[in-house]
Amino acid sequence: AGSGAGADMRTEISTAAAFVTRLLRAAGGVGEEQLRCFRECLQEAMREHYKHHWFPLVPSKGSGYRCIRINHKMDPLIGKAAGMIGLNHERLFQLLPSELTLWVDPFEVSYRIGEDGSICVLYEGPQPGGKAAKQLESRTSCKEEWRIGRSSPSKSYNMMTVSS
Fold it and tell me: Boundaries of each Anti-proliferative protein domain copy (predicted)?
């Protein structure tokens, strides 16, 4: 591959594939050998799919094309890799979140579970020009965002004082 696009996106692809594999492992019922094969198949499918859609100089270009999405429909790349280890879509829907968005972009891999969940960054690499290193500080981390979101008093507290 040399210094072509394939070499440049290795970290991003392996980060994304490892993440989906971890979700499968956490759900249980899939053997380690199957998981290893799934991860390799998914990485291969992603490499093939992204080959002509990877623009390190314009990282957001092609982002929609590279986005991995489960939204009551199984993402074809995940479906393809799962098929290689004998997992059908029905089984995948039991094992994986029913709403998952995974963005695989040059220098950043991030995901969101649920339609209005927080966006969490899995990987952020140094961009050419080195101006992106500070970006993360301005963004709230998932844990902080989770805490902020939960700190406002919930309306359900009022319902706890029901007397019989």
Answer: 96-115
Q: Up-side HSE of residue 56: CA atoms within 13 Å toward CB?
A: 18
pLDDT tens digits, 68-127: 999 989 999 999 999 999 999 999 999 999 999 999 999 999 999 998 889 999 999 987
User: What residues form DSSP beta bridges with 136?
Assistant: none
Of the candidates 6, 2, 103, the one whose C-alpha atom is nearest the C-alpha of residue 52 is 6
Q: Which domain CATH number covers 119?
A: 3.90.640.90
Of how many residues is the chain composed? Answer: 164
- In a domain, residue 20? The reply is yes
Contact 65, 37 (CB under 8 A): no
CB atoms within 10 A of CB 98: 11
Domain enclosing residue 32, as ranges: 9-124
Q: Give the total number of structural domains in the chain.
A: 1
Nearest alpha carbon to residue 47 among 71, 19, 77:
77
Alpha-helical segments (H) within 28-127? 32-50, 63-66, 76-84, 89-95
CB contact at 8 A, 81 and 9:
no
